[in-house]
Amino acid sequence: MAVVTAACEWGPRTRAPRAPPARPPPAPPTPATPPPPRREALPGDDKVVYLMRHGETEMNVWLRDFRAANGPAAVVDLRNDPRLYDTRLTARGIAGARARRGAVAALDPRPEVVLVSPLSRALHTAELAFARVPDVPRRVEPLATEKLWHSSDVGSTRAELHAEWGDRYDVSHLDDVWWYTGGTGDPRAIVDEPEADFHPRMERLRRAVAARPERAVAVVCHWGVIHALTGEAFDNCEMRKFRLSDLKARPLPPWEHTSD
Questions:
Q1: pTM of this prediction?
Q2: Nearest C-alpha neighbor of 225 from the set 171, 113, 145, 109
Q3: Helix (H/G/I), strand (E/B), else coil: 137
Q4: What are the backbone angles phi and psi of residue 174, rounded to the nearest 5°?
């Protein structure tokens, strides 16, 4: 018997067209890598030193008003000194110190330590101006205190500083009375610090900065200290950059009044 095979024809299979695979969204452009901060090449054992003057104080305001009334060369002495011991920052001085935070945070090279005068106006200025770099250690340096001209330059005792600032500054290395008293033994004596004492102190301050291991040091201090080291006059809260090799102890101007 013949077997008849039925041929089954299969037509071509028709498939629905496939959608092209979805492309991933383009990656956002990679931001350009900022160049590393410029590091100043310093020869030998030279350093970068940032000098900052404290903010405006009650004594600054008093001196400005006193000279406006009595002339720019008017002398402050024991008869008219306002007895603003260890003078404090004004509201304007506080605002000025806070306004320096951005500039301090952007310093290049970054300071590795902040040396601060023990006078309260400098301690307060450093606390406010360096608030954005809390990891930078701060050391109270009595050599950086202002030349004693007025009651405002008479300091607070170690115990008083510890009570007010002890949670922010270590003052344990200070003498109880660390400012100039002219040998009177009276911590409230207003005795003009002679150039014969002040000038060598400024040289000891410069040597103390030089002896430190850091290559970038900030010093928060005073008009007289800065003028003695640089020959330049600073406004309140002004900060400038120097090389240690540019600093030297210089005699102060012959006139006996300052804006501090």
A1: 0.83
A2: 145
A3: coil
A4: -80, 150
Q: For residues 58 and 95, what is the distance between their CA atoms, to the nearest angstrom?
A: 14
Length in residues, the chain: 260
CA angle centred on 238, ends 234 and 240, rounded to 5°: 85
Q: Which residue has the tokens 């991933």?
A: 24
User: pLDDT tens across 70-109, in order?
Assistant: 998 899 999 999 999 999 999 999 999 999 999 999 999 9
Closest C-alpha among 155, 220, 158, 227 to residue 198: 227
Q: Which tokens go with 142?
A: 């009595």
Contact 198, 223 (CB under 8 A): no
Tokens (6 digits) for 109: 């090279």
Q: How far apart are CA 93 and CA 70, in angstroms?
A: 24
Ranges under pLDDT 50 in the chain: 1-14, 31, 33-38, 256-257
Q: Residue 184 is which amino acid? A: T
How many angstroms from the chain centroid is the CA of residue 212? 17
Q: Are residues 38 and 108 in contact, defined by beta-carbon separation less than 8 angstroms?
A: yes
Q: Which of 202, 115, 123, 200 is nearest to 167 (CA)?
A: 123
- CA-CA distance, 231 to 142, in Å (whole number)? 21
**DSSP secondary structure string, 157-198?**
-HHHHHHHHTTT---TTS-SS-S--TT---TT------HHHH
- Report strand pairing: 48-53 vs 239-243: antiparallel
CB 155 within 8 A of CB 133: no
Phi, psi of 48 (to 5 degrees): -90, 130
In single-letter form, the type of residue at position 33 comes to: T
